Amino acid sequence: MDKLLDDCITQEEYDKNNERYRKEIKELELKESRLNTANNDYYKTSGYLLVLFENAEKLFKVANIQEKRQIVSLLLSNLQINDETIDFTLKKPFDSLLNKSKGSYGWG
Question: Which helix (H) or strand (E) holds 95?
């Protein structure tokens, strides 16, 4: 606005720039809104996963066969049965949750 008043730019240039800036602001606001939505979805999903992880044993006990397969496939990878032991790898982020849990109780 100062440049317009100082006759550094024409009214037409000012209007073009003003329109361009308004569009950029709208685009940035839309991006911000999308990021906020994604952020909220991330926290909701993280919360659901944490509840699942904390209650996996209880859920597993009452689940039917198909649900048990889903729980195992969600939590574990590299599942192997060797004689009387079962070896597995916890999938991310459950592996770090278990490590934090062990550390907080002095187990690890």
Answer: helix 94-104
